[in-house]
Amino acid sequence: MWFGKSCRNTTEAVKVPLYFKSHDRQAVDAGFVETIRQLLGTDNNARNVAEQRYDSAKRTEPVQLVASLVQVLLKSDIEVPVREQCAVLLRQCCGKVKDADSTWQKLGTHQAQLRGQLLQILEAEAVPQVRRKVSDCIQSLANQIVDIEDDQRPQNLQEWPELMPTLFRIICDTSQDSNLRADCLWIVKELTCSVWQMLLANPTQTYQVLQTCLADPALAVKAEAAALLCSFVDSISSREGRKPFQQLIPDVTTVMAQLASDPEPKHLNTVLQAFQSTTETADFFKQHIATHLMPVLCGIAKSHQDMAARKYAFEVIVSFMESKPKMMLKVPHYIEQALDLCVHFMMQLEDDISGWMQEDDEDGEDEELFSVGKEAVDRISRCAVKVEAFPFLLEGLKQAVTKLFQTGEWKQVVAGISTLAMIAEYVDDEATVSQMTNGIKIQLGASNARVRYAAWGGMAQFSEDHADVVSSEAFTSQLLPEFLKGLDDSCPRVSLRCMEAFQHYGEALEREDLEPFIQPLMEKLGAKLQSQDIKVQKKAITFIAVIAGQVDDAFAPYYGHLMPVLKQVIQNTLHKTEERQLLGKCFECISLLARAVGRSGFKADAEQIMQAMIEATKVPNLPMSDPVKEYMMAASERICSTLKEDFLPFVSHILPGVLEKFTLAPREFTPGNNDIDDDDEVNLTLLRENGQVKVMIMYSSEIQDLKGALECVHTFVEELAAAYAPFVTQTAQALLPVFDFTMEDGIRDLAFETWGQLCRSARQGGQVQIVSELVMEFLKRVLPKFEAAKVDISELKTSAEGVTSCLKEAGPNILHAEQLRHICRTTLAVMAESFKRREEAAKGRPNGLSQHDEDGDEHHDDDDEEEDEQAMRIALCEVAGSLMQHHADMFVAESFPDYLNLVVQWLQPQAPKDDRKLALFVMCDFLEYLGKRATPQWPQFLPKLIEDIHNPDAELRQPACFGVYLAAKVPEFAPLALDTAKRLSEVVTQSRQRSKKKSEKIAQACADNALSGLVEILMVHPQAVASVQGELWKVWLSGLPCQEDESEGERNHRRLLELIQQEKPEVVGEGGQNVPKLFGVLVDVYKTDMADEETSKGIGLFALRLGESKLEAFAAQFSQRRQ
């Protein structure tokens, strides 16, 4: 038995040596104590010297150092802060126990003595804060050295035999100090992830200890016992293992109620934090949530005097939903109670409206409970969406919001608006979105400033989540006048919120909707630009920037008035470090104005503005997170896009500062030796190197700077093309370190893509040798990752995408046959290993499907891993596509049979959906890049592709439709044309009849691809479809404009313009009767993402050729927006 036969009073102590043998009991080195004092002191010089002295001792005399730390801890007459620090340092000495050069390993035979002394210090220590730090040292050490397999049930810990008997002896000894017993329970709680198997070896005794402690008169003991139970059941791997302890649940809820009535919330918060649910915890309490837990938790959340306790209780309730959503939806009244708490929290607003109006968003106090309530609505809704239960939840929310609005009380109305804003992204139905938007719009004119403020916030959220609805013609005519009113709101805080909302709303507006309001908006914004309030100036500049960005050259009339004002702001703020945000926004606004007036309009001011931007980065003593850097790089991108090659003279001045950002990289985190402030946002990642795990950190602002620098260079290379060639080598050298960036995959993605752009720039600049060097350098660095023993799925995916980008942009004649073979063999081997991992993961799962528990809740870990694997497989297949694109003959000769065999295998009826998707992607590459080289093999795969045009799964239907468009380009497709055209026609007709929902967007994208296939067949194979040609043309025309797929939109609308200009009878109709309607389609896509620049230009010229009289006649049939 590991802690005696029963829980009884005892004072028998474990006998352990008191000191390391080389030290006398009374000998406490005064110099050592002084060193610890200096480590805690405020004298930087003395602290630095003390750190060096301490580090030297740790390296050269680790045994003596640890003995000195122990001696100080044993001397109760030394001041508490010094003893606390010694406990902290001792914990560090007991860290990284598996590292060969760690202090723990250097202790050698003294390790056992130290373990014994730690337990003795724990039991003897009378000062609570010192004892808790010693407790922390014990649990940290034990968690590192104890290693028990899940299926083992040992009677004791072989790595530290005295630990558990000592802890449980103290816990069961009611004559001991209750806080000491509570600390011992805390240690066991922290150890449960490592020792739960041992606790389960004696379930009856574990149960008795927990039961006794839950009934203990000391609140500290009760609280830690309840927390231990939560941690214990969370660690147990099986439901059967947890089941015997469910009888303790009523005891736990009783303890929670008792703790809630205590004026001191510390112990209650301990339990509530332990309760924050995982899947196992929620499952454990399942049968008692409605009857025992919810009444206690709701009471605490609503009325406890301690704010932290209220938040913790609410967090427990929400975390249950997050861990087991389907189960919680079945718990009686859970959803009603949870939503009631959301509303209750959102109504915890200050009554002082006047005081609130005097504050601003930056300086005003955060109403924390209100924020907690809002976030809870979002979290609960997200969970409901995940298990396809949001419609059920939405009905309850609708009723709740209606009641809140009907009260007319401002707090209730604010809560209602906030609820609508938080659920906006999850609402799929356009009619419901419109209804909700109308509900918020009405509140924009409310008499209460806080209601108007909330309404503008809600409008911003709906603009972000449902831009297509709120920017529709029906809403813009109502909302833009509201913005004019909002700018003049009597409450400055509301006016600022209105301006913020426009930043989101304006970006979704069509030019023709915004143009009538530019003049009145600019009149009001011009006045705000002259404001002495910097915050107002910032918002006004951003507002103007959004308008300029949306209406392009229509903003040109305001350029001459605005530019002098913005230049003056730059002059006034250039050297004021406290106004860097305003300066950055000026640069942003100017770059958008430049885009609006175009190259010729901005050229005269370009040099002055660029010089100001360069000078702004040279201001001394700038903070690490200087916002101007980010704004400047983004502004440089836009100005480069506007000036094109005229931007070239500025590159040499700007580029060094941008490339300098490429040196930003994570650094190792070492506790106690970092200058991180509480307000700093940092990213953490774990790096395994030479068998050791390092914690790497990087400021979020640094990651953003690095990302901004990459985007900036990417734009320079893309826009300047061949003109950037002189800078390619310099940029490539600077870019190489980013290849090893591990903190965020998106950074590495962008670095690889930028490398590909450098290849294209060098190629366009005629630097053939440099192109080859760039490709070879890239492959040398990246291909070995595919052969590494350690598998990092995310890194492999990113690397494959990088290879694809590099090879596509480098162009033809770069690789020789052996290199192509090596790339194909390597990537195919990685893919084969991925499929093996899938097979292994599927073992033990019925039919290889995702696992669900009895409540229907899924275990998503395996699903997430498989999604990552599939994304990697797709990226690996795209590598093959890049090889086909520029080395088609070589690919056919060397590797086509391997990929064809895979496609045939993936098309088998029993193959998973993901495999069929891969097959479709590879088939599309066959058809696009190999062309007639692949036609002899069509019978092996093309019939399956055509078959998938009617696949009920849109994710398969879309690439099938696109593949047909590619196949139809060659004459050999003629025998298949008629049947395929009929299939495509059905896809278009059925898809366009679907309701307008977010979830239907992919179906519309399928129809967009089907339109491309249909018109390609009509143009290339008219004789093959002659019998139904007229009907097919009608379907193609009625399916326009394209709705979701921008590439297909560009393709089809370009083709439509060409056919109208050619006056093709099947298109324009008899006597041109279809032209007004079709011209309306072109008007709809003019200067949108659904038409490329050349097509938009052609639409404009076509309109001029039509003449004024025809345009007036057409306009009479158009909606107001089209007019």
UniProtKB/TrEMBL annotation:
Tell whether NAD is among the UniProt keywords.
no
Q: Which UniProt keywords apply?
A: Cytoplasm, Nucleus, Protein transport, Repeat, Transport
Q: Which organism is it from?
A: Durusdinium trenchii
Give yes or no: UniProt keyword Mitochondrion: no
Q: Which residues form the IPO4/5-like TPR repeats domain?
A: 128-289
InterPro entries given for it?
ARM-like, ARM-type_fold, Importin_beta, Importin_rep_4, Importin_rep_6, TPR_IPO4/5
Record's compositionally biased regions (Acidic residues): 860-869
Cellular compartment(s)? Cytoplasm; Nucleus
Tell me the domain of life.
Answer: Eukaryota
Question: What's the protein name?
Answer: IPO4/5-like TPR repeats domain-containing protein
Listed Pfam families: Importin_rep_4, Importin_rep_6, TPR_IPO5
Q: Where would you say this protein principally sits, based on its record? A: cytoplasm
Q: Where is this region: Disordered?
A: 840-869
